Amino acid sequence: MAVTNLQELLNNKQSGLIALQLARFLPIRTGLRLSDILAGRIARRADLPLVQGIRANQWVVGRESLSSQDLDFATRDTLHHMARAMFLLFHHLHRPDSFWKFIAPCPAILDELLEDHHRKKGVIIAGVHLAYYDVFAQTALPRSRKILALATPQANPAIEWQHQLRRRIGVEILPTSYEAIREAIRMIQNCGIVIAGIDYPLRESKYRSIFFNHPAYLPVHHIYLALKTKAPILLVAAIAQEDGLVKFLASDYIEMRSFPDHQQEILYNTELILRIAEDFISQVPHQWAMFHPVWPDILDNVPGTNGASNA
Q1: Do 29 and 171 belong together in one domain?
Q2: First-to-final CA distance of the chain
Q3: Which three-class secondary structure state does DSSP give residue 295?
Q4: pLDDT computed for residue 2 by the predictor
Q5: Phi, psi at residue 126, to the nearest 5°?
Q6: Residue 305 falls inside a structural domain
Q7: Residue-number span of the structural domain to which 198 is assigned
Q8: Do 70 and 195 have their domain in common?
């Protein structure tokens, strides 16, 4: 069976445990080298939806100025970071203290969150899918508070295995639904933390938000929760530096702005958060580990795809 996704290695409990054990005992240099080999092989499979999705997203992030050859490099580099992040996560998972050896000093706002000295109210953590995000989840989330993560409703064995890793640190995970939103409101009102991803495509969304100058159907439930509960949003991401250390990025606490018109209110605040997310992604565009096409309407225009120019 062809590997069509880096996480297909985790498609069931048995294969996941094998991958986890291999990464645990492999020397870091060997594990990273094997990760690069796997990523390179996948990158050459231009027919895979995974590869096509990364190419399309990288083209938009690159301001639609990248050639087919540029996109080949961007896709390969993105897959390298995805594979390396997965290996590093698995390698250190059984050694929680060792995570900190390859993490750069945290922003003060995350130190505050980690030490639980923040304001005595709930907070919404909005996550950007840069490749090393799960390293952030394993280290910078406080263990002393209740944490609920709202997950994409489209579950599969690979996603469920990822959820199991997050549950190890005490995170409750619920597929996004009306019931889950109600539970998230209760969590915030009881000074808990709610986590939500903001940059994955959500076809059933009623709102098209501008993201990298293009309209996209993206989640808005974090905005709804913030407006409903008056809780602030903290936008976070994790990236690899040139020195090999993982650096956490964090915004300030962001308060929502109210408008009489509900649709304007949702779109204004969604795009407020997305503009900060654009800045995070633009710092390291090839580390944006989003392989679902965020802008499916532009797929046929991407250089190197059928019907598109290779120039």
Answers
A1: no
A2: 33
A3: coil
A4: 37
A5: -100, 125
A6: no
A7: 99-284
A8: no
